[in-house]
Structure formats: structure tokens, C-alpha cells
Amino acid sequence: MAHKIFFTLIIGLVSGIFFRSFFDFGFPIIILFLAMGVSVFVYWLFNKKETKILFLSIIIAAFSLGAARLHFDDWNIDLKATNKLVGKEVVIKGIISDEPDKRENGVKLTARMEEISLGGLVLKDNLPKIMVSVDFYPEWRYGDYVEITGVLKKPENFTTESGRQFNYVSYLAKDGIYYEVARPRLELVEHGHGNFVKDGLFFVKKSFMEKISEVVPEPEASLLGGLLLGAKESLGKEILDDFRKVGLIHIVVLSGYNITIVAETIMRVFSFLPRTLPIIFGGGSIILFAIMTGGSATVVRASIMSLIVILGKATGRMHNAALTLFIAAFLMLLHNPRILAFDPSFQLSFLATLGLVYLSPALEKYFHFVPGKWQIRELFLSTISTQIFVMPLILYNSGNFSAVALPVNLLVLVFVPLTMLLGFLTGVWGFVSGTLSLFFGFLVSGLLYYDLKIVEFFSSLPFASFNIPSFPLWLMISMYIFYAVIIFSIRRKNAYSKV
Question: Is residue 115 a contact partner of residue 123, using CB atoms and an 8 Å limit?
């Protein structure tokens, strides 16, 4: 009963956040829904035999609370005064609040505005973040207090190469970014205004990548940076497009999609050890990954979900893992409700983890023909489960269907844990011994070269990927409903077969 109430609460809350993400129906309507939920609950108190009425009251009240959570989030930032400055050259004083994001044609800086002024007008309270586009040099770093002089603009949605409209405005808004300044005049006021822990992590990460770059050539070094540390150095548009074609972009950009698979594979590598040690190695690899990447929100979200799954699988309590997964997602949405509709990383991480929790165990008995040696069957099931679960979302977002995603993921992901280990040793020994760093760098370069060649070969095939011009929201939702029905049927059939 308690589980049913919790899941009903989740459904209502998520529905409220989702609808409020696209439709601002006003606070009075939210209060009306809350009053309706309370009224239905009061009615249930006098008819306790009707449990359906209880669930109806919960879902209506939770819907209003979800909508209210996002509504109140909008109140935290006052954009009315700042909007009057759009299109004008302003002077902004602010702090670079995240690691610089290096692209092919420049660098993106996220800055927290402390003050914005135009002539005698000065605004200081409840200011949002801004995205600043600058050249590669001079270099800026997290925690720099800077003065920015440039034209304030609002972000605009754009059409992708596949013809899809990308909601860039909402994508930035989920991180509190509401304005942009392109190629401004930047002056450094002072260093060291960031969080000292985060600053230290970014410094270690930068130094670590420099040591790797000394012994690993390009583009292998950039691929290792994306795989191991979520480094934002670009691999180049052509190579990134190849990774998208073969459905392997998740190991290049820091989407969190592959973290669970990596942790699970590490656990399998150490499966010959006493039971608790593989859990420690798997969980430790996730925690180390999160720390080394600077503990960004993207990695933290994916890491929490991944830890839940590996603990659930290791202890044989997948039902509890599923419940804990929803609790973690619930808490994340309470913290930042905008990630539900506008954060692809959260969506991919949640769906990939959901596939591992529900689909992978349900399919296991149907794939005994896959060799179990070296945990090949488990890797196959993990890969196919995550691919199936994220496919509708990818089709809806990008329209890109990769016909070679499964074989490419199997060929590459089997070596990902070893690649990460050798890459980690390359960077660590770079601080101690250049000879040993060169040795491990040589080994990891071979594996990275293999990855790039696999991607190059499969992406060159004429049938590697297809673009689906239109994949509507209702079709994506229908596919996930279909998944739910199939999984429920398989689980019920398996349960009957054990009786």
C-alpha cells in the first residue's frame, strides 16, 4: 500500500512539473487543483473502502504541488528589470561559476552576475547567470571575478542539422542562465572567488589532462578526456558526427549514459573476489569519476542512479533498487524541477538505469545462447537494455536512428573499463615517473585508436544511421507504455514459471 501511494505521488508530481514546464496556467489554477485534491481526500475519509478515491486525491494534490514547485522556482529570479536592458551595451560584474567550455570556435563561460549597470541604473538583487562567448585567449578559469562590457541578449531557439527545433532557451534556463553576451570586453578584477573545493578539483583535472596530453597523441587524448574526466575539449565536428551516427556519443560527451555500464563492467572484472569487494570497486569507480570531473550536476545525477543500480544488483534486491531510483529522481526534481523536461542528461541517465533495473533481468532467460564466459552475456544484456530504453527519447530529440549502435557499443564498451584504468594510470604516473606514464600511455593509445577505428569503419557504412524527420511526442510516450506492458508481461510469466 505504501509503495502504491508513493508511486501515485510521483506520478502526480511529475505530471504537474511536466505540464507547468510548457503551460503557465497561473497560480490560482494551481490552488484550485490543490483544493480539489484536499476535497476528494476529505470525501475519502468518509468512504475509506474506496481506495481509488484516495489515489485520485493524492494524484490531484501532487499535480498541484509539482506545478507549484516550478512556479515558485520562477519567483527566485526577477527578470523584469533586466529584460529592459536587452539589446543595449551594459557593464556586468560577475564570477565565472563553472569550468570554461572549450568549443571548436571559442570558449563558453558561465558567469553569475553580481551587478549589471547601464549609465546610472545599477541592478544587484536576484540576478541570473549569463553565458559569455569569448576567444581562446586570454584563458579564463573558474572563480575569476570579471567585468564584462557588451551587448546583453536573450538566447534563441534554433533548428538543428536534422531539422529539429531545439529549445535552447529552456535548456539554458534549467541551469539558471537567461542571457548571453557575445565577444564582450573582459577585464579580470580578481582571482579566487569560487568554491575552494571545486576550484581545487578543476585544477587537479586540468593538470591531470596536461599529463595525459604529454604522452597520448590527438585525437586519442581528447577522446580519453571525454571518457575519463568529462573534459570539454572538442574532438572536432567530423569525429563527433561519426560517434553520433554509430550511437556512441555518450562516451564522448558527458551525458552520464555510460557510467552505469562502466561500473557494472568493473564489478564483473572483479567478480572472482569476495562479494563485497566488486561492490566497493564498482561504487568507488563512480565516486572517483564524479570527483575527478569536478562533481558537476550532470555527473552527480548519473552517479546517484548508477550507485543505486549496482547496489541493487549486487544484493539481489532489484525491487528495492527500483524504488530507490524513483526516490532519487523525486529528490532531484524537488531540487531542480526544470531537469524533467529540459535536461537530456537526466532523461538519458534515468531511462538507461530504468532499463538495467527492469528490462535486463526480464530478458536474461531469453539470451542463454549468448556466451556467459568473461561476462559477455551480462554485458550484452546491459547494452541492449539501455539501447532499447533510450531509443525513443533519442528519436524524439534528434531523429537519429543508428542501425549499428548495438554491435558498436558491444565492441567498444567491453574495453571501456580497461581504457579508463590505463588512462587513469597514465595521468597519475605523469606526476611521478615520465617513463611509466609513457608506458601506460602507449597501451591506452592503442585501445583509443581501436575505438576510433571501430567508429570510423561503422560510420562509413551507407546504412549506419537514418534520420527520421518526424517522431512526435505521443509516439515516444506510446513506445514507453508499450515497453511497460511487455516488461510487466515478461515478469509475470517468469514469476509463474518459478511457481
Answer: yes
Residue in the structure block whose three cell numbers are 527492469: 358
Which region holds residue 185: left if phi is over 0, alpha if psi is between -120 and 50, else beta?
A: beta
Q: What is the pLDDT of residues 36-78, one digit of tens each?
A: 999 988 888 887 767 888 888 999 999 999 999 988 877 667 7
Judge whether 289 and 303 are in contact, CB under 8 Å: yes
| Rounded Cα gap, residues 317 and 38, in angstroms | 35
CA contacts within 13 A on the Cβ side of 140? 35
Radius of gyration of the chain (CA): 24
Dihedral sign (CA 285, 101, 343, 125): positive
Between CA 278 and CA 287 the distance in angstroms is 14
Q: Report which DSSP code applies to 46.
A: T
Contacts of residue 197, defined as CB under 8 A and 6 or more positions apart, other chains included, come to none
pTM assigned to the model: 0.80
State the cell numbers at 372: 556467459
Q: Among residues 42, 37, 136, 118, which one has the least CA distance to residue 82? A: 118
Q: Is 222 exposed, middle or buried (0-12, 13-18, 19+ CB in 10 A)?
A: buried
Burial of 48 (0-12, 13-18, 19+ CB in 10 A): exposed
Q: Please, which residues have CB within 8 angstroms of residue 217's CB and are 6 or more apart in sequence? A: 445
CA distances from 250 to 71, 167, 198 (A): 32, 20, 24
